[in-house]
Each structure stands twice: as structure tokens, then as C-alpha cells.
């Protein structure tokens, strides 16, 4: 069986590297190991499962076995941070463009997580996360499911790599959903996070939605890994 995993780019000069991959819809959830990119993706799903499903006991829409949900689709991009020597994934995040689903999605049709929470479609998230209706725009992306194994600096590496990738795709802004500490980390890296609503909470924790401008960088995101 051959895979068609797209290794969109890889960067990093230290012990921690980052790559961005896109997984075809028909391979999501399939246990194949013929692609380096897919192996990293598989490790990221396992890390998500350990943190969100096992530790936090979040309910997942599709599968409690690997934390897959309705936003893991063929148009989803994944930023994966891994150790250069061992190729072990130590963190990652999920990226989606906010124009998926169109300006006027059909009732019950999923678009992206922040917008669907505002629409009242997600039982696990408060609907009052944003003061205004979240955007539907090709140059604005959403980052969710940020997770790390607890190693120092991994979260910052994921954000740095996400910005580099988004800049290469001509993105202007990125929206984030996570705990309040997430926004504090972004500010410490030189970003100017703008809250899009008040901090909200439920049995799963405290959440805040914020956005930042994508910092333009010179050159394209280098594609080095091969599937």
C-alpha cells in the first residue's frame, strides 16, 4: 500500500525540528507505516489521545481511541514537532482555513471548531467564546489541538513553525483556541494576541479564543522530507 502523505515543509536547526503534513482523507485512522510523515502524524494522534482523551477525559466526536474528530479531514494541516535524533513527536497542532464551509453553512454542517462552537454545535465547548461571529476568510486560519509532551520549548516551536508555514501560504491572521496560558505564551514570543471574547469554562477546563497577525517571513517554507 502506498501513501500520499504531503510533507509540506520542515524546519528547525536545533534538537527539535518541525514538519507540516497533510493526510489524505482515506488514510486518516489507517495504521500504515510506509511514510515518515504518516508515522509522525500517527505519533501526534497518540499524543493527543494521551493528553485529551485519557488525561483530560474529553469526549471526542469520532473516536476515543485516537482523538480523531470531525476536523481531521483531507484539508487539515498538522504542525508536528519532533526530536531530530529519535524522530519521536513531542508536540503538534492542527491548522484549518476558516473559509471551509462557506459564508452560510447548512444547519448542522461543520466548518471549523471556533465557529462551530459559536454556532452551538459542539457540546464540549461553550458557545460564548467569541463576542462576534467568527470570520470566514481564506487568509485567516484556525489553530487547535495544540499538545506537547511537557518538554521545555516545544509549544513555542510549534507556534513558530505554524507562523512560518502560514506566512508561506499568504495567511494574514491566525485564530487560536486554548487555555489562557496559551495566549500568554504567544505574547512572550513577540506576537500581539487580541482576545476575541472573554475566558469561558466548563467541566473540561478554561478556554479563550484569540487571534494574532501572521508575521511575514522571507522565502518559502522549505520542503525537505519526502513521503
Automatic annotation (TrEMBL):
> Pfam families this protein is in?
Autoind_synth (PF00765)
User: Which key words are in the record?
Assistant: Autoinducer synthesis, Quorum sensing
State any GO BP term from the record: quorum sensing
Extract the GO molecular function terms from the UniProt entry.
Answer: transferase activity
Q: What is this protein called?
A: Acyl-homoserine-lactone synthase
Query: Into which family does the record put it?
Result: Belongs to the autoinducer synthase family.
